[in-house]
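Regression test case RT-17, inverse folding.

Input:
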């Protein structure tokens, strides 16, 4: 857990561009944006991935979605719309193993978000 990049960002040991913070949630700009708006929203406790959401910690997910509502309104993308993505483990493309939700917006996004079909 001490080796976790996002725990270090929460602790202020690694710099980040904060866009929102409260008791449970921290949000900051993605360092490598894929759209005009690309923000990461994370719980202030370490949870590896969506596989590790439980009855005990699920309130962080509610808090994250309330934060998403505030952040998207603040950034002016709520009305046009945006996408929330959480990648899980290898097949999902998760590279940082601290649960996080990408807010992607500021332009019209394609769907599906991958090229292959079943
Ligand atoms: P994922 O691939 O879903 O695990 O998302 C991890 C995200 O973290 C990627 O979009 C990276 O660009 C982003 N990222 C990695 N390091 C940093 C950092 N130091 N500050 C901000 N975003 C980062
Ligand atoms: Zn962590």
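Golden output:
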């Amino acid at each position: 857990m001490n080796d976790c990049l996002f725990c270090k960002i929460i602790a202020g040991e690694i710099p980040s561009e904060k866009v929102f913070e409260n008791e449970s949630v921290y949000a900051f700009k993605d360092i490598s944006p894929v759209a005009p708006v690309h923000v990461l929203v994370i719980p202030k406790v370490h949870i590896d991935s969506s596989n590790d959401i439980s009855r005990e910690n699920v309130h962080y997910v509610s808090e994250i979605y309330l934060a998403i509502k505030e952040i998207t309104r603040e950034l002016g993308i709520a009305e046009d719309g945006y996408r929330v993505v959480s990648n899980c483990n290898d097949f999902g493309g998760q590279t940082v193993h601290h649960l996080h939700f990408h807010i992607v917006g500021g332009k019209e996004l394609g769907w599906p978000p991958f090229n292959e079909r079943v």
